Amino acid sequence: MSKNFKALPAQLSDKLAAEIREGNSLFQKPVKDNGLPAFVKPINPTTGKSYSAMNTLILGMQRHDDPRWMSADAARYAGNWVKKDEKGTMIEFPKTSDIQAIRTADGQRIKDGAGVTQTKTVEFEKPQRSQAFLFNAEQLKDIMPLDEFLAKQNEAQTLSPIERAAKLIEDSKAVIIHGGQEAYYDKQRDAIFLPEMESFENETKYYQAAIHQLAHWTGHESRLKRPMEGKFGSLDYSREEMRAAVAAILIGGDLKIGHNFGQHAAYMSNFVKILKDEPFEITKVSRDAQKIANLLLGNNQKREQKQGAEQQGFKVGDEIAYLDTTYKVLETKNKSVKVEDADGNRKVLQPNYGLHKSLLEAKYNPREREIGEEQENGLVEEQENTHKIGR
User: Where is the Polyvalent protein metallopeptidase domain (predicted)?
Assistant: First the structure.
């Protein structure tokens, strides 16, 4: 990699700061000129897998109307092809293992009788950052029409976006007090204050405001215990605002209700300053925003319920996206499984193999882990000196 390569978080910070200065960031312009949401939650159409918060921001900031994103290899394996001259969007993920060719003592690849190179899985002691380029469905040929894909995706969804938002708020059990003209979270009283619904332009705007304040509510010491010190207008105050704003984007995209930051002008200059002076703060912001979204959307509970309801095993025909390729299950025998990757390499995996465990995890828990999440515990939280958050 070139010595001049700028780390991905820094690239994201630069782009986001530039968009804020131009007045067209996701915070400032939640709806595009075509009337569609500026942010569409990215997903892998083969697995239904979503991406980590930072990668979600990177992909969402491309402003595509189609939520589907895949690598060129995964797209080709699914029977789709990248259109000529299209450029991929780089994301970053933690790589915990690598598949390497088995070689002789003098470095020659060992092949089987069919001429296929034999491989082994090497597990890393620590996750290593790895990059991949993804392409949006709008950049691919021969892919299912978006309307058809969305119809299939929404088949099991019986609630409207408004109903889902209302249920999310109800399920949170947060104390919400209606009245007045301000929307904010009072951390001393651990209560959200909102104007009456009739004060908003429509129901959607009300629920968008409520979700934003609910994001602040998660920071209480009895929940995610985030530092929320600083007076209105300070950099510390703005750090919390950025976390809530990104979380509201993620949640609004998941519920398909959209987001609206509302009174954003007071925070934008501080956002730019933070992004410029501390470009890697966006990594922490994204990680905290993911925790907020997980808590409010109940993702952890859903995952446990899904795992408990399904038998933990492989089925012939399973297609599992893992790292930068997709594995297809060709055969199962006892607890072993025969798979083929996107390049046509085949192998038999025993239950004690690292790749076997990783593919099983990827099938039943399709998510991207963030590097360094365990390294956040050194923060010292001082006593909060202001009560109203998110005004």
Answer: 163-285
